[in-house]
Specification:
Nucleotidyltransferase, domain 5; five-stranded mixed beta sheet; about 230 residues; 2 domains
């Protein structure tokens, strides 16, 4: 299986290609430059992997939640590449990708994934690993940090994502076992989650690929913009 994956839902840009058990990955802080950097990085990763776009089995992308602009960029680029090459797509939830990153990096099997959602809120979801799949303990939501509830048996749960960096008292308040605020929903994690779905035929046509929006507000008031608030 040749699989391309990428994510632009955070300030990081992450691209990965898996080909016959070999991984080629690139992760870089892109800030607001995702739209300029994504396609060159895709080209660089595919070139190093020795894989042409036409050789891919499918394309996976981080579908959100995350930055509105970033999520739209990932979905739009995935659709464009897939349409041009006649490929199927696998949208992957970014919070589930965070859980996968925590499992690969730390061996975590119960993960509270948390991303900074700006506007004094976080995107949060809880996942637990059973057999070879993640089960949703609580689905993606956008909450004020004070409203995030500890999962049952919180001292057995691992915190992942930059929401814990933006609100450093959150992990302690919830009583989590440990936390890694530097983890991102990286493209390798997205690809790892997408592979079994591709094998099972759980893909979508390019026209049917949709972002996962948890917060549906897309504009700020003048006062919020003046105060430096970001969506």
């Amino acid at each position: 299986m040749n699989l391309l994956a990428f994510d632009t839902s955070t300030r990081w840009l992450s691209v990965a290609c898996a080909t016959h058990g070999r991984w080629v990955t690139r992760d870089e802080p892109a800030g607001q430059a995702h739209s300029e950097r994504l396609l060159p990085l895709v080209d660089a990763v595919l070139t190093e992997a020795g894989v042409a776009l036409a050789d891919l089995t499918a394309i996976a992308f981080g579908a959100g939640p995350g930055s509105f602009t970033g999520v739209r960029i990932a979905c739009g680029v995935a659709q464009g590449l897939a349409l041009g090459a006649g490929l199927r797509l696998v949208p992957v939830a970014t919070l589930e990708a965070l859980a996968q990153a925590a499992a690969r990096t730390h061996g975590a099997t119960r993960v509270l994934a948390c991303l900074d959602a700006r506007m004094r809120e976080v995107y949060v979801a809880a996942y637990r690993r059973e057999a070879d799949a993640w089960l949703v303990q609580s689905g993606p939501a956008v909450l004020h940090p004070a409203d995030v509830a500890a999962p049952p048996g919180a001292n057995a749960w691992f915190g992942a994502g930059d929401g814990f960096a933006s609100y450093p008292d959150l992990a302690a308040r919830l009583g989590l076992a440990a936390c890694d605020a530097a983890l991102i929903p990286d493209a390798r994690s997205i690809a790892e989650l997408a592979m079994p779905r591709v094998a099972k035929g759980e893909t979508v046509a390019a026209a049917d690929a949709l972002p996962l929006y948890v917060r549906h507000r897309v504009a700020l008031t003048t006062a919020e913009r003046d105060a430096g608030v970001r969506l």
